[in-house]
Specification:
By secondary structure, this protein is α/β, with parallel strands linked by helices. It contains 20 helices and 30 strands. It has an 8-stranded mixed β-sheet with strand order 3-26-25-27-28-24-23-29. An 8-stranded mixed β-sheet has the order 12-13-11-14-15-10-9-16. Strand 5 and strand 6 form a beta hairpin.
Length: about 725
């Protein structure tokens, strides 16, 4: 939380001020709503402009928040968060099916299930239409029945595989075939959106101009802006060539690819050629796929890039990801060989080494089988200390507890003995990012305090900041389990003075806990708490938003199975991807499901909202009247900046499909709104079909096509293998 409370108090005070300077009570920002016909309803509210001034917002501004549960003493929101992200809800959607009534259970499994129901008659397991397992039970018996029920469900034979699909496949034909197979084989079949599993980061070496990363996994799923692709070596008499091109893929954030054709004699030139191409195209990160045995190539890459960084030739910062793409990826011999080569080649005085956890970051962890309960906690630290074993304190690398707001509060409540223990630990060795310094809790009731350090700035490139966050969380969970502790509390790390974006941090923290529990079903950890300052409205509503994304993210609609054109450019800012989408094309795509805020510009009020269905938009919905005047756009820009910066949105949609064709170049005005908002990494602009075909001045935008090429397919039942094989053939016919 590092000074999170102070920041929040200042924001809350500003939000409560009225135009005359007085204050009024306020909890969350007043959301908008849709009426029965699905139209957007106009609301009035006090709005804070980017310069800090206040004015009464007229009908030119409509604020609709897609998902904001009513708060009753903050408990309803907390229980909803727990039920959605734990999949341990009391109620089930109508589309969920009871596992016990559909599957042909073996006699032993059925007896175990019936015995469990004698402990808790409410015990049941259901499967959603996307394959999410939901467990229901009496909350009083949660720790007993959940663990037993999860153990029971894990015994059901399950086959899961990512299946490629043909372009002509429709959702209707797929669903019909699934229905036939379920009836024929007495099984449950589910499919959902395929999400790539990014390479796991095991180590990194940090310099102000260069970060070197050692990763393992599928290089095609890298978060880097570019990657190398090796092709067959050319004949000696031919000239070695390097070719850059852009791929069309279902993933809108597809990277640049450098195809390298070289024989052994030309290996020394590869790093130089790669660096020159990155410099020419202003690309900041590159993934180099390796097997782990290319000692000479690894050494030359490190030496060449390090030399450029040392001489100050790199203006900003480059990221060099050395990805060991071994099969299987657990081949430790090759991985250790690559790590040893890097450590011998790297200048230890120049780089700060950081040990990471090897955690695979993904958009969401799709599974409800984690045995670890998650709770949102808003009580003060002293109250939490009475029910939790371990408290995680966000500190700096220097372990100075009087610097951070949260650390300072811990110091005041626990006493100076905590700082003295930190000083002793610091004398014994270096304390770096992702490391843990364990101390007592002094006068507090915690059994231990784990002090951790995040990177001091938000770095979205290669998701480095999130990788360090995930790493230190995994280390904390492993350490507490090794010490036989069962509960731990994390603040919402990095969202205070460090300025990490709320939604990205919250998604990552939930994913780490769920993935850890999924990999370790017999874990001793029972409960993880996330503590949130009660007055931090932005952070509290971000939790609600993560729930909304989780609910809708995995579902595939008929729109997903159709190829859709769009245009993309990365040239407006080095870490900003701008996409232009025609009218309805964005619906059903993976891109829109990750949108954190939707800004809708209306040409006028009244019937102009009839073609804007709130269900088509994701995240916070903010609508405002379009304007033709220069001053009007400046005012809109100020409003957009205030909303984006206060919530720290990273992915934004802007709907200007009411823009006339003759004004099509005004899309540039929208781009200009976000050029200086460096937290925004993805901007999708929706225009009319006519404007879409006209917008491409100077060929700044490359033509792309969105389509689903892979789905994740799961079968629960005895004949799972046969069913999967049958569907492989069906999808390629």
């Amino acid at each position: 939380m590092d000074s999170q409370n102070a920041v929040c108090e200042e924001r809350e005070e500003n939000d409560r001020k009225t135009p005359d300077g007085s204050t009024e009570a306020s909890d969350a920002p007043t959301p908008g709503k849709s009426d029965g016909d699905g139209k957007l309803e106009v609301l009035k509210e006090s709005h804070v402009l980017g310069n800090g001034d206040h004015r009464e917002v007229s009908e030119s501004d409509v604020h609709i928040k897609k998902y904001q549960p009513e708060r009753k003493g903050s408990k309803e929101s907390e229980s909803l968060i727990q039920s959605m992200l734990l999949s341990s809800d009391d109620t089930c959607d109508d589309e969920n099916q009871r596992i016990s009534s559909v599957l042909k259970w073996s006699d032993s499994l059925r007896k175990e299930f019936e015995a469990l129901q004698t402990i808790d008659p409410a015990t049941d397991a259901r499967l959603s239409d996307t394959g999410e397992i939901t467990l229901t039970n009496d909350p009083k018996n949660h720790h007993v029945t959940s663990k037993l029920l999860r153990s029971l469900i894990s015994k059901i034979p399950t086959e899961c595989e990512s299946l490629p699909i043909k372009r002509q496949l429709t959702k209707e034909s797929l669903d019909g075939h699934i229905e036939d197979q379920q009836s024929l084989n007495s099984c449950l079949i589910r499919y959902h959106r395929h999400v790539k599993q990014e390479p796991a980061y095991d180590f990194c070496w940090i310099h102000r101009h260069l970060i070197i990363i050692l990763a393992r996994g599928d290089e095609t799923c890298t978060s880097c802006d570019s990657r190398l692709e090796w092709v067959n070596a050319v004949a000696e008499e031919e000239t070695t060539t390097t070719t850059w091109y852009h791929t069309n893929t279902y993933d809108p954030s597809s990277e640049e690819i450098l195809r390298v054709e070289a024989n052994d004699r030309e290996i020394p030139e590869i790093p130089r050629n790669v660096y020159k191409k990155m410099e020419l195209r202003k690309i900041r990160s590159v993934c180099v796929p390796l097997l782990g045995s290319e000692t000479s190539l690894i050494k030359r890459f490190i030496e060449y890039f390090s030399r450029k960084a040392r001489k100050g030739r790199i203006v900003d910062r480059l990221f060099l990801e050395l990805n060991i793409s071994t099969e299987p990826i657990t081949d430790d011999e090759l991985f250790i060989n690559a790590k040893n080569t890097i450590e011998k080649s790297i200048d230890k005085k120049m780089f700060l080494p950081v040990r990471l956890s090897g955690f695979h970051i993904s958009e969401f962890c799709h599974d409800g089988m984690s045995p670890i309960a998650v709770d949102l906690e808003t009580e003060d630290i002293e109250a939490v200390a009475n029910k939790v074993d371990v408290f995680v304190n966000s500190s700096s690398r220097h372990l100075e507890m009087n610097k951070g707001l949260l650390s300072n509060k811990i110091l005041k409540l626990g006493g100076q003995t905590i700082q003295a223990e930190c000083n002793e630990k610091k004398k014994k060795g270096k304390f770096s990012y992702g490391d843990i310094c364990k101390t007592s809790s002094g006068k507090l009731s915690f059994r231990k305090i784990y002090h951790v350090a995040l990177y001091e700035e938000w770095i979205p490139t290669c998701k480095l900041s999130l990788q360090i966050l995930a790493s230190l969380m995994v280390h904390c969970l492993k350490e507490m389990e090794g010490e036989d502790y069962t509960s731990i509390v994390f603040p919402v790390l990095g969202t205070g003075k460090l300025g990490y974006p709320y939604i990205q941090v919250i998604k990552t923290m939930f994913n780490v806990v769920r993935a850890y529990g999924k990999e370790k079903p017999d874990t001793k950890i029972e409960r993880v708490y996330f503590i949130v300052y009660d007055k931090d409205v932005y952070c509290r509503t971000a939790f609600d938003h993560v729930v909304e994304i989780q609910k809708r993210y995995w579902k595939l609609t008929a729109d997903d199975f159709m190829g859709k054109p769009y245009k993309e450019s990365r040239g407006f800012r080095k870490n900003l991807i701008v996409q232009i989408w025609p009218e309805k094309a964005l619906l059903g795509t993976q891109s829109v499901r990750s949108v954190e805020a939707s800004f809708i510009f209306l040409p006028g009020m009244g019937d102009d909202t009839k073609d804007r269905n709130p269900d088509d938009y994701y995240g916070y919905i903010i609508t405002m009247l379009n304007t033709d005047s220069e001053g009007g756009w400046i005012e809109k820009k100020s409003m957009v900046e205030e909303k984006v910066q206060s919530h720290r949105f990273t992915s934004v949609l802007v709907d200007i499909k009411g823009l006339p064709v003759q004004d099509s170049e005004k899309y540039q005005t929208v781009v200009d709104m976000f050029k200086d908002l460096h937290c925004v990494q993805s901007l999708q602009i929706v225009v009319s079909d006519e404007v879409f075909h006209k917008v491409n001045p100077g060929y700044a935008f490359k033509k792309m096509e969105h389509h689903i090429s892979t789905i994740d397919f799961c079968v629960w039942g005895e004949n799972g293998k046969e069913v999967v094989e049958e569907f492989k053939k069906f999808m390629q016919e």
